[in-house]
Amino acid sequence: MEMVAAAKMRKAVASVLATRDYANLAWATILHLSGKTDSSLHPLLLKQNGAKKIALILISSNRGLCGAFNMNVTQKAIDSIKKHEKDVDNTDIIAFGSKGRDLIRANKYNIVADFKKQDITLNVNDVSAISQMIIKDFIDKKYDKVFVAFTDFVSSMNQKPRIKQLLPIIQQPDDYLGVVGKSSGIETTKEFIEEKAQRYLQKGEYKYEYVFEPSPERVLEHMLPRLIEMQIYQAVLESEASEHSSRMMSMKNASESAAEMISELTLTYNRARQAGITQEIAEISSGAAALKE
Predict the structure, then answer these.
(1) What's 94's DSSP letter?
(2) Whether the Cβ atoms of residue 151 and residue 160 lie closer than 8 Å to each other
(3) Domain with 111 in it
(4) How far apart are CA 253 and CA 67, in angstroms?
(5) Residue 198 is part of a domain; what is its CATH number?
(6) Which is it for strands 145-155 and 158-167: parallel, antiparallel or unpaired?
(7) Which end of the chain, N or C, is less surrounded by CB atoms within 10 Å?
(8) Structural domain contains residue 65
(9) Computed over its alpha carbons, how large is the radius of gyration of the chain?
């Protein structure tokens, strides 16, 4: 199982690294656009005054034997709900993965949707149903905010559960996916972008200016839903890489523990066998001595 998990982990890590920079740069672009364009141009940019209804997408696994992977991300979601439960009327859970669904249900939280998750997410179409649902519900004002709970892949030894706000689109601390807020190889953090923009402005080399063709409404109408879908897809890839890494380490630890247990049991068995042999020799010697007498 360790070898199988290692093979799956390599594929999952390759997939997550291949799309991480695109997802982060796309998110950075839309954050800049949301700050430079009128929020009334698209309902996904509207910021409600006080969130009363919240949706949380919980991404977990379908299989166990992966250590505390599912428990950690579920507990992170529960902590987030408890943190805001005084300010909101209700929080609806959208489950993507059977293990997280079962854990969150055991804690008596409201699950409004349960999407079937494949063991390996092949393309963005696997999450399109979730993105369409939350976008429609947000536009219809069923929810004031939408979050996603997933596990960020840092390394094969380190995975960190996170809560990320998807809607409405606003700048948040630790907003980018992957390596807990930093893109691998391309800087997309808020501080870096603002510092770079300020430096260009001082030199007169660069200004924030956006040209929309054919119109801002048409561009945002096509761009924003696709971006939300991409963020969910990337969160799923991060979770899958984390899942297989966690399972590989769990199976490695289990194998090492089993080897130690076998060694200890073998030593105990040999001692017992030697004690039995010694006792039998002593009994034979005593019997032989008695016969001579």
Answers:
(1) E
(2) yes
(3) 2-248
(4) 10
(5) 3.40.1380.10
(6) antiparallel
(7) C
(8) yes
(9) 28
Q: Is this structure's pTM higher than 0.85?
A: no
Number of domains in the chain: 1
Yes or no: say if 147 and 166 are a contact pair by the CB < 8 Å rule: yes
The DSSP call for residue 60 is -
Neighbouring CB atoms inside 10 A of 113's CB total: 16
Among residues 120, 129, 123, 146, the alpha carbon closest in space to that of 48 is found at 146
> What size, in residues, is the chain?
293
> Are 218 and 39 contacting, i.e. CB atoms less than 8 angstroms apart?
no
Question: Which strands make up the sheet holding 158-167, listed edge to edge?
Answer: 111-115, 90-96, 53-59, 145-155, 158-167
74 in a structural domain: yes
- Structure confidence by residue, pLDDT tens digits, 181-219: 444 444 444 555 555 545 544 544 445 567 777 877 788
User: For position 208, what pLDDT does the model report?
Assistant: 57
Q: Examine residue 268 and state whether it is found in any structural domain, yes or no.
A: no
Chain-centroid distance of CA 231 in Å reads 12
Which residues in the chain come in under a pLDDT of 50?
180-189, 197, 200-201, 203-206
Backbone phi and psi for residue 48, each to the nearest 5 degrees, phi listed first: -75, 150
What are the start-end ranges of the E strands in the chain? 53-59, 90-96, 111-115, 145-155, 158-167
Closest to 130 in 3D by CA, of 42, 224, 228:
228
Segment (H or E) for 189: none
Contact 34, 210 (CB under 8 A): no
